[in-house]
Design brief:
It is an enzyme of class 2 (transferase). 31% of the residues lie in helices and 26% in strands. By secondary structure, it is an alpha/beta fold. The chain folds into two domains: 4-52 and 214-378, Vaccinia Virus protein VP39 (Rossmann fold, 3-Layer(aba) Sandwich), CATH 3.40.50; 58-192, OB fold (Dihydrolipoamide Acetyltransferase, E2P) (Beta Barrel). α6 links the parallel β11 (240-244) and β12. α3 (94-108) packs across α4 (148-161) and α8 packs parallel to α9.
Length: 380
């Protein structure tokens, strides 16, 4: 992938872009192999490669410039404002979408926030697109409600110009800190969810719910987990599945088969509502999603599932949850990780489990980051 911002050293966010893509993939596989060598995986599969550009369906842009001449991008290490509206990581529909966002900023007179002076209102533009429908969700991160009336006044104009805009909201982040978003979300459109579909499984994204930035790779990740679970079912039937850190239900809804039960746990109530809606549409009756802390749920549990699925944030499972997994002793464990370092730490804290399968999914091309899917079995 060629990027003129990277070539000019204005944006180095894709810090591996100077390496040919096959070399990037080989380096990631080598790092993963080294990290997991002590656990002697029975099978280490070839990595799943990414498209090299146009794969990122979620953008996080800093609002820069002025209300009259807005820019969307980053402030680089040299302190320069860099407009990334033409970033090649995004699909073609993002460039005109960013231009409409800029026109809306001008029309609503949204002054970009100045960190040093602590003045201005608009901090970030967060934009997501459904690959399935082509529809968009736009979130405006504001310092306060001072411009809320102006946003509401001019929103009908934006919706008329941009028929693909499904959901629009304002997020309030009042702190002068490097935080992407705050707790309060004000949805301004009739539609509150962005519909996505992966492998014939409907998923519904709320403004604050977590979802992978690359839907093609996410679909491959979920399908691989489903295939592994189906193979286990052939070896010996299991009935109870837990999906911890379940988000909007992607893993659990891909894995469950007839005759099985699924319990999904996620701390965000909006994500749980989305997962429950998907389960209902798929006709699953023996499914329960609950808005709880995953570690607290496991700590209070007395009986283990047959298959435990975990997809924790970058910090990993942690010592306490690993101890509870050891205590509960589910027969099978599928662990999806976005941080191989903390994955290795957690595997060391799960000595009662042997590592059967490992596969790398290159969710984040041109960087050192990647997703890993693992299958573990309790030792006899």
């Amino acid at each position: 992938m060629h990027c003129h911002h990277f070539a000019a050293k204005r944006c180095l966010s894709c810090h591996w872009l100077d390496k040919p893509y096959p070399q990037q993939l080989a380096l990631k596989q080598q790092q993963l192999t080294t990290l997991l060598a002590a656990f002697k995986p029975a099978q280490l599969f070839e990595p799943v490669a990414s498209a090299e550009q146009g794969f990122r369906y979620k953008a996080k842009m800093v609002a820069l410039g002025t209300a009259e001449q807005p820019m969307l991008g980053i402030v680089n290490a040299q302190g320069e404002a860099v407009d990334l509206a033409d970033c090649p990581l995004y699909p073609p529909a993002f460039a005109p979408a960013f231009e409409l966002c800029k026109a809306f900023i001008q029309r609503a007179k949204l002054t970009p926030y100045d960190i040093a002076a602590r003045r201005g209102e608009l901090k970030f533009i967060l934009l997501s697109q459904s690959r399935h429908s082509g529809r968009f969700m736009l979130r405006l991160v504001l310092r306060s409600k001072n411009c809320l009336a102006s946003v509401q006044k001019h929103l009908p104009w934006l919706l008329a110009q941009w028929p693909q805009l499904e959901v629009c909201s304002v997020n309030l982040q009042p702190l002068p800190a490097a935080l992407l978003e705050g707790e309060e979300e004000i949805i301004l459109t009739e539609q509150t969810l962005l519909a996505e579909q992966l492998n014939q499984v409907p998923l519904y994204l709320t403004p604050q719910s977590f979802f992978q930035t690359q839907p093609v790779m996410a679909a491959s990740l979920y399908q691989t987990a489903a295939d592994w679970a189906a193979q286990l079912q052939l070896q010996g039937k299991f009935k109870r599945i837990w999906d911890l850190f379940c988000g909007v239900g992607g893993f659990g809804l891909h894995l469950i088969q007839a005759g099985q039960s699924l319990t999904g746990i996620e701390i965000a109530p909006a994500a749980i509502a989305s997962a429950s809606r998907s389960a209902s549409e798929l006709g699953f009756t023996n499914v329960q999603f609950q808005a709880l802390d995953s570690a607290a749920f496991a700590s209070a549990a007395a009986e283990a599932p047959d298959l435990l699925v975990v997809n924790p944030p970058r910090r990993g499972l942690g010592e306490a949850l690993c101890k509870d997994i050891q205590r509960l002793a589910p027969h099978w464990l599928i662990y999806s990780s976005c941080n191989a370092q903390t994955l290795a730490q957690d595997l060391a804290a799960l000595p009662e489990y042997k590592l059967l399968k490992v596969q790398l999914f290159d969710m984040f091309a041109h960087s050192s980051h990647y997703e890993v899917l693992t299958l573990l079995q309790r030792r006899d």
